[in-house]
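Side project, low priority. Logging it here so it doesn't get lost.
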Amino acid sequence: MPKKTNPRKVPRSQEDCDRAWQKGVIDGVSNACAIFLTVLLDKFGGEDHIQEVWREINKLSEEVREKRVSVSDLRRVLADEYGVYV
């Protein structure tokens, strides 16, 4: 019977690490969006506007990705104008 290899000792490539990092980022953002939208629906009755909110989130995300808007600017506006620190 061959000896089992400890999964922590299996060599990983940089590509494997990058893929795991990207999956973690996607999972984290997805979880944050699910929490945000659930609170919006459950606590603030956003049923009438949920699709519109989701479209706007995707639109703003695209603007960030294309570097037309920076996340640091969004955070600063939230903090300065609304007292919300993210």
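Brief comment: The first helix runs from residue 14 to 44.
Revisit when time allows.
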